[in-house]
UniProtKB/TrEMBL annotation:
A Pfam entry, by short name: S-methyl_trans
Species annotation: Leeuwenhoekiella blandensis (strain CECT 7118 / CCUG 51940 / KCTC 22103 / MED217)
Name used for this protein in its record: Methionine synthase
PANTHER family, sorted: METHIONINE SYNTHASE (PTHR45833)
Pathway: Amino-acid biosynthesis; L-methionine biosynthesis via de novo pathway; L-methionine from L-homocysteine (MetH route): step 1/1
An individual GO BP term: tetrahydrofolate metabolic process
């Protein structure tokens, strides 16, 4: 959606960063500071299409990811402003349609480092990032998102569960320090037809790795289209005590990295999730426009969400 604005390097910089020493075009998170009207407009378009939840414009909003642009010092501001923009739009829609409240999920992306694997094939023991470095970065991001008014936190596009564990640990620290409760969604990414995350976990292994945390939902997003995601949703749906979420891409990208799947084509595939009662929360990732969300929102009107299983009670051994 932001690519449709065709922002130039100067647009990305705005007044605040007009003399920045390195190129910043492509740093979409900073648009929350330099082009806040566009960010608000995108959120409004999705709410208008029927979305109940939008994500903040903070997918790369950690010091780790912002290091690519030398903008580590602006991480708090990026997240805080992103949350404020989304929350303001959400409140406006909730006031207009109180029977359909709108919510904001603070997006916490995977970063561009992996804690489980070496980036150097010649040195498999090397790690470019530590658990504690990730925890510190995620904690800063989560604090800013909460200060900006998000309703829940979304640890998403997880290709390395150890990274996600650092984020979840940081969130638990904040909850304890502030004496608050905040719903947390977790969404992994199955990277290819192997059915595994990049760090090698199957869908079931991924679920087992995070299910000790108090989560609102667990599920998958990105990488695959709706049809390809179905078998992995079946796995977590059958084994999870949490709500199950899915927001696939609008199909697979073409040779130019663009997404050709129409709204109706995507909705037709998501109908399988509904017919099988696999999900509680559904939406779209890469390539998903408000037209796609509108088609999905209309589709789900006639369906009940997946029934939540009763939590298993374990008896203490005598």
């Amino acid at each position: 959606m932001l690519q449709r604005y065709k922002f130039t390097e100067e647009d990305f910089r705005g007044e605040k960063f007009k003399d920045w020493s390195s190129p910043v075009q492509g740093n979409n998170d900073m648009l929350s500071i330099t082009q806040p009207e566009a960010i608000a407009e995108v959120h409004a378009n999705y709410f208008e299409a029927g979305a109940d939840i939008v994500e903040t414009n903070t997918f790369s909003g950690t010091t780790i990811a912002m290091a690519d642009y030398g903008m580590e010092d602006y991480v708090y501001e990026l997240n805080y402003e992103s949350a404020k923009i989304a929350k303001k739009v959400a409140q406006e829609f909730t006031e207009k349609e109180p029977e359909k409240p709108r919510f904001v999920a603070g997006a916490m992306g995977p970063t561009n480092k992996t804690a489980s694997m070496s980036p150097d094939v010649n040195d498999p023991g090397f790690r470019a990032i530590s658990f504690d470095e990730l925890r510190t970065a995620y904690k800063q991001q989560a604090k800013a998102l909460l200060d900006g008014g998000v309703d829940l936190l979304l640890v998403e596009t997880i290709f390395d569960t150890l990274n996600a564990k650092a984020a979840l640990f940081a969130i638990e620290e904040i909850k304890e320090e502030r004496n608050i409760e905040i719903p947390v969604m977790v969404s992994g990414t199955i990277t290819d037809a192997s059915g595994r995350t990049l760090s090698g976990q199957t869908a079931e292994a991924f679920l087992i790795s995070v299910e000790h945390m108090p989560l609102l939902s667990v599920g998958f997003n990105c990488a695959l289209g709706a049809k390809q995601l179905t078998p992995y949703l079946e796995v977590v749906s059958g084994k999870s005590n949490f709500a199950v979420s899915a927001y696939p891409n609008a199909g697979l990208p073409n040779a130019f990295g663009e997404y050709d799947e129409t709204a109706d084509e995507m909705a037709a595939q998501i109908k399988t999730y509904l017919d099988k009662q696999l999900i509680n929360i559904v939406g779209g990732c890469c390539g998903t426009t408000p037209e796609h969300i509108h088609a999905i929102a209309k589709l789900v009107e006639g369906y009940a969400p997946r029934p939540l299983p009763e939590l298993k009670k374990t008896e203490a051994a005598l």
